[in-house]
Amino acid sequence: MALIITLLVMVLLTALGLAVTLVSSTERQVAAAHRRAVETFYVADAMLARVVHELAGIADWSRALDGTASSALVDAAAASRRLPDGTPLDLPSMTGLVTCGKPACTPAEMDATTLERPWGADNPRWRPFAYGPAAALGPPGPLVPAAYVLAWIGDDPLETDGDPLRDGGAAGGPNPGSGRLLVLVHAIGHAGTRQVVTATVVRQATGVRVVAWRVPRDAG
Fold it and tell me: How far apart (Å, rounded) are the C-alpha atoms in residues 7 and 148?
């Protein structure tokens, strides 16, 4: 009888030990995932700040929209564009996905009126403006997270000129989207961690500033 009781106690203690180990492991994984999410978010926010600063130095934002002006942070070598896990990053495909939900978009698809893009010919045509590893955003250091960050810009859909590659074109009257751009930032970290930030920037007499900023609910 004593042997049976001893065995039962041993089984119970073993089960408790396994449960404690499992809970501890899960908590560590949750904490690590939260830390990666926070770090990746700060990378996205830093990229947005850099883009706003560089846009302030471009006198004609149509040059940014049509691709003749870009950020100084451009990872020009396609072979070096890799995510933290070593996966190659296909910039054209990512651009297509954020524009029309497909790796490649036709002009008709970019101008199509949809629930997500209801402005038709004034839909923003996202163009890569800045992209590279997070380490390129500032001075190197041990606290810089391993992440790859991309920023696209697009014409503000409030415009009425039907030309998403031109800022404030002729519209037969005042163009409400003139001097306004959209910025879309994706920061991708370890284990598929992704943070997305979108913002509207406006050129004013005192400089360029962010007037709208949000994190999509399904980001992260």
Answer: 54
Tens digits of residue pLDDT in 80-97: 899 988 899 999 999 999
Q: How far apart are the first and last CA of the chain?
A: 56
Helices (runs of H) and strands (runs of E) counted in the chain? 4, 5
Domain boundaries, the chain: 37-214
Which residues, in sequence order, are CB contacts of 201 under 8 Å at separation 6+?
51, 52, 55, 180, 181, 182, 183, 208, 209, 210, 211
Query: Which segments of 86-171 are extended strands (E)?
Result: 127-133, 148-155
Whole-angstrom Cα distance, residue 210 to residue 52?
A: 8
**Per-residue pLDDT tens for 14-71?**
767 676 666 655 666 556 667 878 889 999 999 999 999 999 999 999 999 999 999 9
Name the CA dihedral angle for 77, 47, 86, 70, rounded to a multiple of 10 degrees: -20
Instruction: Give me 210's structure tokens.
Output: 């962010």
d(CA 145, CA 43): 8
**In this predicted model, which residue has the larger pLDDT, 141 or 209?**
209
Q: What would the pLDDT profile of 148-159 be if each residue is shown by its tens digit? A: 999 999 999 988
Decide: residue 83, CB within 10 A, 0-12 exposed, 13-18 middle, 19+ buried.
middle
